[in-house]
């Protein structure tokens, strides 16, 4: 019987779950907005993890939020080591997930095409 999830996927999900809790505790919603972890990709050797985030209603730009998270990545990694029992905790690299903004843009394009088509039919 084949495994449904590889070890990397299980580790990625665990990191995503625990890191979301740590970030919620350490970053204020007023200053950084609502930070959401959309995905975590762990390298095959479990040494590195790319953490994709989105942030809504942030007082800072996306670049500033990413820079702050990357500056505090070591501290966040240490916090994870306190909650996750594992030999290795991967190095964290935070990246902005542009899929939400891209999806909103595409939705607005589709909506504008629909309204244009309705106006032509009238």
Can you tell me about this structure?
The longest helix is centred in the last third of the chain and has 23 residues. The mean pLDDT is 85. Helix 1 crosses helix 4. The radius of gyration is 19 Å and the shape is elongated. With 122 residues, it is α+β, with helices and mostly antiparallel strands. It has 5 helices and 3 strands; from the N terminus they run ααββααβα.
Provide the CATH topology. GMP Synthetase, Chain A, domain 3
- The CATH level-2 architecture is identified as 2-Layer Sandwich
Task: Evaluate the radius of gyration.
Answer: 19 Å
Low-confidence stretches: none
- Which homologous superfamily in CATH is the superfamily? K homology (KH) domain
* Overall spatial form: elongated
Strand content: 15-25%
- Share of helix, binned: 55-70%
> Strand order, biggest sheet?
1-2-3
SS-derived structural category: alpha+beta
Order of helices and strands: HHEEHHEH
Query: Could you say how many structural domains there are in total?
Result: 1
Mean pLDDT over all positions: 85
- Termini separation comes to 59 Å
Major sheet attributes: 3 strands, mixed
Give the strand tally. Answer: 3
What distinguishing features does this structure have?
alpha+beta, GMP Synthetase, Chain A, domain 3, 122 residues
Can I get a quick summary?
Helices cover 56% and strands 20% of the residues. The protein is α+β, with helices and mostly antiparallel strands and 122 residues long. The protein has one domain (7-97): K homology (KH) domain (GMP Synthetase, Chain A, domain 3).
């Amino acid at each position: 019987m084949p495994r449904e999830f590889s070890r990397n996927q299980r580790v990625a999900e665990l990191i995503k779950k625990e890191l979301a809790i740590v970030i919620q505790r350490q970053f204020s919603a007023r200053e950084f907005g609502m930070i959401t972890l959309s995905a975590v990709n762990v390298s095959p050797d479990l040494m590195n993890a790319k953490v994709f985030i989105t942030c809504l209603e942030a007082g800072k730009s996306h670049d500033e939020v990413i820079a702050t998270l990357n500056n505090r990545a070591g501290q966040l990694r240490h916090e994870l080591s306190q909650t996750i029992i594992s030999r290795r905790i991967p190095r964290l690299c935070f990246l902005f997930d542009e899929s939400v903004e891209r999806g909103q843009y595409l939705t607005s394009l589709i909506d504008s095409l629909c309204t244009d088509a309705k106006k032509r039919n009238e």
